[in-house]
Amino acid sequence: MQFNVKSMVTENIKVLIIGGGPAGYTAAIYASRANLSPVLYEGIQPGGQLTQTTDVENFPGYPNGIGGFEMMEDIKNQAIRVGADIRSGIVTKVDFSKRSFSVIIDDEKEIIAESVIIATGASAKYLGLPSEEKFKGMGVSACATCDGFFYRKKVVAVVGGGDTACEEATYLANLCQKVYMIVRRDVFRASAAMQQRVFDTPNIEVLWKCNTQEVLGDEYGVTGVRLLRADGEIFDVAIDGFFLAIGHHPNTDIFKDFIATNEEGYIITDGKSSKTNVPGVFAAGDVQDPTYRQAIIAAGSGAVAAMDVEKFLRES
Predict the structure, then answer these.
(1) Is 116 found in the same domain as 254?
(2) Which three-class secondary structure state does DSSP give residue 222?
(3) Which of 38, 107, 297, 311 has the most CB atoms lying inside 10 A of its own CB?
(4) Could you read off the pLDDT of 27-63 as tens digits, one per residue?
(5) Is 4 contained in some domain?
């Protein structure tokens, strides 16, 4: 792939980190401490998905909890303090066909990098309702493990009918008074084992053949959900929390001409390392993790990527 870069400003660097969530910022900390002078472009959502989370209570080092935005600012500022060059900008094109790698920022600047860490994360899929957007962080969540703690002994709903939805519903059932599952079909898509777990959990009620029309709430947050059943009936259910479990989309489209991904689009890495199929290009965080999707795990994989990069540059 060739770019018209004659009129662009060009910059040569050792390590380019693409993405500014827990994985990217942690990679920047480790790479800076290894004297690799990393440059990080934060992308479309500086700080990643955690910036939309009101309270984080499961990240080590914050015994009283912390807001998601504030926590990401802490990690970012730590990276800056140890020497990382963190910039605003969106990667619009890449060429990983040969080393050094060419990366275009905002269609106006070319970065020539000896190594690249991809930490662009994965975006949760939402229904696309204005009311859903309105109550994000105020009762609407796409991560039961992250936010379920705040709904202890309360009533919540989970949207989805696959393995993830069943797993999140049973997880929430251990915390919540009642869990509704909103399933648009009359059957689950989940595995038989996951379905049985739902059926064996007494405080889960499945609302079959239902689609969400609107998330209801007030200035304090979610108070209910309005559903449309396949037979045309419209009814409201009182809830305190609304959880989406309809999947995630890894932010990998721009890399797919060069980087191997699985069927869902997640980057394939080599064993426990962060190595991709292209030597010199590494991946960290949710962009290569379809299973856990936790900030602490993303941060750990960012450290792994930086150490893999340091070894790669030393040996090459």
Answers:
(1) yes
(2) strand
(3) 38
(4) 999 999 999 999 999 987 787 777 766 678 889 999 9
(5) no
Q: How far apart are alpha carbons 47 and 26 in whole angstroms? A: 11
Distances (CA, A) of 15 to 40, 77, 82, 101, 102: 8, 19, 15, 10, 12
- Number of domains present in the structure of the chain: 2
**Which of residues 244, 272, 287 is at a domain's end?**
244
Q: Which residues are registered as beta bridge partners of 275? A: 282
Q: What is the per-residue DSSP string for 117-149?
A: EE---EEEP----HHHHHTBTTTEES-HHHHGG
Same domain, 217 and 230: yes
Q: What is the pTM of this model?
A: 0.78
The residues assigned a catalytic role are 143, 146-147
Phi, psi of 196 (to 5 degrees): -65, -35
**Segment (H or E) for 25:** helix 22-33
Cα-to-chain-centroid distance, residue 295: 9
Domain of 22?
Answer: 9-123+248-315
